[in-house]
Specification:
Elements lengths: L8 E2 L1 H9 L6 E5 L11 H7 L6 E2 L19 H10 L7 E5 L9 H10 L5 E4 L2 H7 L26 E2 L1 H5 L6 E4 L3 H5 L18 E2 L16 H10 L8 E4 L6 H12 L5 E2 L2 H5 L14
Parallel strand pairs: 1-5, 2-3, 2-4, 4-5, 6-10, 7-8, 7-9
Length: 291
């Protein structure tokens, strides 16, 4: 599926200008930071210490399907609508999402993807995130932001952007699975951050650690041609049918954003990702030694 959307990535200079110009009548900035439990970082605490002026905090781990033990699976349309309303986001707003990852992008793409799943295409990701924003000396503020509630109605989820375990098993659409986890976890040589889960990968999958589509110096996404080269080198050409996965459906969305940026492709995300696959003893797992 090709992409019809707002500008995918906006620069720090663009956002700083938009905020200064008070073009913000229909501009909503959202901190969607999330950190693994093993990181020692607490996203909401850091948000209260420093965030882009006017930004509200979206809890990746809180706005989820409450009926499953799997981490932060997609919520219902009704729950997502309520979460957006409480953040002061309306269906008319241009939403700019960022996170505070040291890499420049980690979890913000998850909210970018969720908004699109629920029919809100007017969403961009801040290229370089809070790390680049702060490095440039742009203003931050502390404390909570109390937005006025807004009217937001999520549409029925776009199932073309989501894959289930059953679809992965069935190799839905002949899609090659691309895994965004670090190379060691894919190979089975490094442990998973979630207790009790083995590392390794799904048979036939390809490894593209999400950091490989980011520039380590500038923290921004690589230019389209370089992103395409990363996918091709991994055996997952952006012209072929692909589905993206990771540990729990967060960094897979970085690869989905990268594919949209490089090839105007909308890649589906395996929402359950490795947390679901590897917790089922019946599912085959390969490691570097066996694959």
């Amino acid at each position: 599926v090709t992409v019809k959307m707002a500008q995918l990535l906006v620069s720090t200079s663009w956002l700083a200008s938009a905020l200064r110009a008070h073009a913000g009548a229909a501009l909503r900035v959202v901190d969607a930071s999330f950190h693994l439990p093993t990181s020692g970082r607490v996203a909401r605490k850091e948000y209260l210490e420093r965030h882009i002026p006017g930004a509200v905090f979206f809890d990746v781990d809180g706005v989820k399907d409450k009926t499953t033990d799997l981490p932060h699976m997609l919520p219902t349309s009704a729950d997502f609508s309520l979460a957006m309303q409480e953040l002061g986001i309306s269906n008319r707003d241009h939403v700019v999402v960022y996170d505070a990852s040291d890499m420049g992008l980690y979890s913000a793409a998850r909210l970018w993807w969720m908004l699109r799943v629920f029919g809100h295409d007017n969403v961009s990701v801040l290229d370089g995130g809070l790390t680049k924003w702060r490095a440039e000396g742009l203003p931050v503020e502390s404390g909570a932001v109390q937005p006025l509630p807004a009217q937001f109605t999520a549409k029925a989820p776009r199932l073309d952007l989501v894959r289930t375990k059953a679809q992965i098993i069935a190799k839905h659409g002949g899609e090659t699975l691309v895994d965004a986890r670090p190379a060691g976890r894919f190979a089975g040589t490094a442990p998973e951050p979630r207790p009790g889960l083995p590392s390794g990968h799904m048979p036939g999958s390809r490894s593209i650690p999400f950091t490989t589509v980011l520039d380590p110096a500038t923290k921004t996404m690589l230019p389209p041609a370089q992103v395409s080269e990363v996918f091709t080198a991994a055996g997952a050409s952006l012209s072929s049918p692909l589905v993206v996965s990771c540990g729990s459906g967060v960094t897979a969305c970085v690869l989905a954003l990268a594919a949209a940026h490089a090839a105007q492709r909308e890649l589906p995300v395996y929402d359950g990702s490795w947390a679901e696959w590897a917790s089922d003893p019946a599912m085959p797992i390969e490691t570097a030694a066996k694959s």
